[in-house]
Design goal:
Blueprint (H helix, E strand, L loop, with lengths): L4 H15 L5 H11 L4 H25 L4 H21 L14 H9 L2 H11 L4 H20 L1 H36 L4
Organism: Croceitalea rosinachiae
Subcellular location: Cell membrane
Keywords: Cell membrane, Membrane, Transmembrane, Transmembrane helix
């Protein structure tokens, strides 16, 4: 086992910033208001399963279509870069249609385990040991679960301004991570 606290902490921060569950609180609140109840446990478990499955099977899928992990990591760095730009500038470069029901599908995927999260997991796989990434996924899913359970309380405590500041801070962190990910993996391509 290659457990490393620094890798776990970094991977946790990357996933926390990409999942952006605090920034998704307004979406969660509107879903809860529309349908009355969000299945927090089910959504968290399904998202965790998707993320861990992609951690192990994602590389095989890539090799099947002829793409190496470093190329995917560079592409992931671009995705993370644009997510960070959205968070920092408060603009929307890409917008999914708003889900109509608060079942596992709109919450677990794509809200929690969306394209950015899955891309980040494979990009992390290029740099870190699998067991550290799994621990980071579990840490984030536990946090996601508590946020889903107490989203109304969090909204009252942080207010719109607090959520906005938090989102911008994590956007800057995500931007720095995207640059590092690009710099680390682009050399492997040549």
């Amino acid at each position: 086992m290659n457990f490393n606290f620094k890798e776990i902490a970094t991977a946790s921060m990357v996933l926390f910033a990409v999942i952006d569950i605090l920034g998704s609180i307004p979406i969660i609140i509107s879903l809860r208001n529309k349908v009355g109840h969000i299945q927090s446990e089910k959504a968290s478990i399904v998202a965790a399963c998707l993320m861990v499955a992609f951690l192990f099977v994602g590389e095989s899928i890539l090799s099947l279509i002829g793409i190496d992990v470093n190329s995917f990591a560079v592409a992931g760095a671009f995705v993370i870069f644009f997510l960070a730009i959205e968070m920092i500038l408060g603009i929307t470069l890409y917008k999914d249609e708003e889900p109509e029901s608060a079942s596992v599908v709109p919450i677990a995927f794509p809200l929690i385990a969306g394209a950015g999260t899955l891309t980040s997991i494979l990009a992390l796989r290029a740099e870190y040991y699998v067991e550290n990434i799994i621990v980071a996924i579990v840490i984030n899913i536990i946090f996601v679960y508590f946020v889903l359970k107490s989203s109304k309380k969090i909204e009252r405590v942080l207010s719109k301004n607090g959520l906005s500041v938090l989102r911008k801070v994590f956007g800057v962190i995500l931007l720095a991570i995207a640059v590092k990910l690009f710099a680390t993996n682009v050399n492997q391509l040549f």
